[in-house]
Design a protein that fits this description.
Layout: H1 12-33, E1 43-46, H2 51-61, H3 72-75, H4 82-92, E2 101-108, E3 112-119
Parallel strand pairs: 1-2
Antiparallel strand pairs: 2-3
Helix pairs in contact: 1-2
């Protein structure tokens, strides 16, 4: 074994590309299953680990910036709590309200991912 082979490494550019492809494909599949388009979703609440991934997913889905809000600059990556914190913040600020269609997006270690729709 070489001296540095035991050190975990992340290939950022390839991870970014794979994450964007996976999340945008997942959203499109979810929308197709439910007979809607990404534009029909009022707010995408994405895991707040990497703003570059979230911006690229937004661009891939062709939705306006305000539909994928971010609080990464305020709190950083709060791990498993990111979606809950952002949802609470948006609700308290009146940016999401009863009747809105939300899409939750998550991507985590080992390139595990998921998405869900919720009508408030």
């Amino acid at each position: 074994m070489l001296a540095d082979e035991h050190i975990p490494q992340m290939r950022g550019p390839s991870l970014l590309k794979k994450a964007v492809q996976t999340l945008s494909r997942t959203v499109n599949s979810l929308c197709e299953t439910h007979g809607i388009a990404p534009e029909d979703i009022d707010c995408f609440i994405a895991h707040q680990a990497n703003d570059r991934i979230n911006r690229a997913v937004r661009q891939a889905l062709k939705v306006p910036p305000e539909k994928i809000p971010s609080n990464i600059a305020r709190y950083g990556n709060t791990s498993a709590a990111t979606i809950g914190i952002l949802t609470d913040e948006l609700r308290r600020d009146g940016k999401i309200r009863e009747g809105d269609l939300l899409c939750f997006l998550a991507l985590g270690a080992g390139l595990n991912w998921g998405a869900a729709l919720l009508r408030l």
